[in-house]
Each structure stands twice: as C-alpha cells, then as structure tokens.
Amino acid sequence: MEFNRRNTEKTAENTRIKICGLRRMEDILCVNRLLPEYIGFVFASKSRRYISPGEAGKLREKLDPRIIPVGVFVDESPDTVADLLSSGLIDIAQLHGAEDESYMEALCRHTDRRVLKAFRIENRDDVRRAQQSSAWCVLADSGEGGTGRSFDWSLLAGLERPCFLAGGLNPENVGEAVRLLHPFAVDVSSGVETDGVKDPAKMEAFVRAVRAECGRHML
Known about the structure:
With about 220 residues, the chain is of the alpha/beta class. The protein has helices spanning about 25-35, 55-60, 80-85, 100-110, 125-130, 175-180, 200-215, and strands at about 15-20, 40, 70-75, 90-95, 115-120, 135-140, 165, 185-190, 195, 195-200. Helix content is about 35%, strand content about 20%. The protein is globular.
C-alpha cells in the first residue's frame, strides 16, 4: 500500500482539530457548535472511553455532517474495522495498537477508506518507522492514547510527512504546539476533560487556542 499525501499537504494556518473519546450526546452537541474537523469514537474495549458501535451510531446520527468521524481501534481484526468503515459509521480508521504493514495490507483488501496509524514517539527510530508507514497519515503520541502525557516534540524534526500531534495537549499548550510544529492536525482527549468527561468550556478553549494561533499565521 503506497502512502497517499492527498489532502495532507497543509500548513500551520489550517491545522485541523480532532477531539477524541466522545461518548455522550452532550459531547456531540458541543462539537456541532465548535466544528472541529474530526471527532473520535474509541472502540477499544479496554479504554475507559470505550463506546459500542451501536451507541456510536446514535451519536453519529446527530453529528454535523461537516465533521469527519474517526474510529479508534487497538489490534482489532481487519474484518471488523472494515465493516465499520463500510457501514458509514466512521470515515477513517485510527490504529492505536501493534498493527504492522501486513495488517494494513489486509485491511486495504477490504476497504479503500483512509487509515491513520498511531506511533509512540520515544526516540528517532520511532520517527523513522512513522516516516515509512504506508498509512494515509500518521499520529505521533506519547503512549497508548488518552494518557494526558506529552513527549519530546523535538524528535519530530525528522518527520517529513504531515501528522496528527497527540499526547498531553490541552488549551494551555496547544497554541505553542501549532506555532512550533505546524502539524496537519492536533488531537486531544483527556486535555479537554474534567473528572473523566468532556468539559465544554475546555473544548471551546482548545479550539479557540488552535484557531487563534492559525489566525496569526494568516496575517
């Protein structure tokens, strides 16, 4: 599977936003007002943000059509991922486990939808693996996802392809991340939560911080 750069050659002035781990109708109403480019449903059963496909379907029905829904999976069978993509429940599959190139080849035999592969960035070798991935886009994170921990952003200097930046982002530091790294997108989950649930005020502050920094690049 060949890496497709279509729709990923973006600069800082249009850094996208993904808010992950939505589970409640209140979350959907909030993102419909804020209009991030992406939202995420977590289908990994061990996650505290897990949502069943049936529950996600009810939320998907109320989601603004301008927002792209992403399904987050951890070592799920390619058939299951492909089925959820084909059903229209999600438009992009985000792989957050040990899925390798052979896994993605198997997935692509069942679907032509986009695949976002997450990489835990701890050293230069991790960056090289991300660089070589055949996924539509890569996500740079500090761990398994939703941990609220950041990593050494300077490691991404060797990454020569667009990526989603995740790990420890919040309303206070995301503007700096956009200014320094110019990522294709920023991805947040725990950074906009209070007591384990999405906080509308924090979600709005996060979106405003990203768009304010992007606006400065457009001046």
